[in-house]
């Protein structure tokens, strides 16, 4: 949805019509960024509620950065500063990415688009990426003096041999590439650093925040150069719907992308709906299982009834069976899911953070309790198969 840097006023009628059609596209930007945030590692909230990022790339995080003229960049900078002023922002930080000099993306990849440059990023090898391909594993920004000051990192605290400053863990098997875009692939024009020296520092843990920085030492050693990538805007209070709307209007008019907390909100709602649907499915399977068990033990229940056992006894037996099966199923299902996730993301376990504690508690505690309560309420009536002895 690249529209360029021309202001909205003074457009022709056709240009305004195209802008109106394209402005509809920003409604879907959060869904697009949701997929990107899920694909990038580590997993977790994409941004705090009081931050937004303006990307020069029309595709957002981890996509090709279009080449900008000096005049065009000054115009965009002015628009971003005006937006920040309207939001009463505390900080406006320019973000820079690194690229291989004189390199647009090579043949066969998405970088073949005119005017696009693949920003440096992290890659990891996974089974679903055919060798020598690797999967995109996160954005890398340049450790500019302004960015270091913002996060309270003094130049003297940086190891002079470190290539990466990060708050992430599990980067031993991750490689640094001069061009890394969303997805899985390999580019012969890209320069790869297999085992970059990493220094752990205090940086944000949100997926889209600058949590991995490229040092001056890495830029010099690898002979990469820094290019503008966007702006990080931080406000004193959580952004309102009106403020988010103004930011998206800027994105629509200027051909850039704005990412906000909304992507993570969508992910949370999706997780809640998935948890609820999973519980309903599990309860349905449990109901069929308990019904089958009761039919198989009908003769034993007739014996209990004949000896004076009342509805409370039958309810207790059925509820205990359903609760035990629900707890066993929840434990086995959760353990199996996490074992599969650990095996899949063994090279970068940060992908499993943060742990969805609420959803897990709903599954591990809510499912057995719901099964127990439902079985108790529905098992009190004496079935006809128990009230009358079957004809043999």
Folded structure, characterized:
This protein is an alpha+beta fold. The protein folds into 2 domains: 248 residues, no CATH class; 121 residues, no CATH class. The chain is 43% helix and 16% strand. It contains 11 helices and 15 strands. The radius of gyration is 28 Å and the shape is elongated.
Largest sheet: 5 strands, antiparallel
What is the molecular shape? elongated
Number of strands: 15
- Strand percentage, roughly? 15-25%
The DSSP helix count reads: 11
Rg calculated over all Cα atoms: 28 Å
Q: Please write the string of helix (H) and strand (E) elements.
A: HHEEHEEEEEHEEEEEEHEHEHHHHH
Structural class: alpha+beta
Distance between the termini: 76 Å
Question: What's the overall average pLDDT, rounded?
Answer: 75
Largest sheet strand order: 10-6-5-9-11
Low-confidence stretches: 1-43, 103-113
Number of structural units classed as domains? 2
Fraction in helix: 40-55%
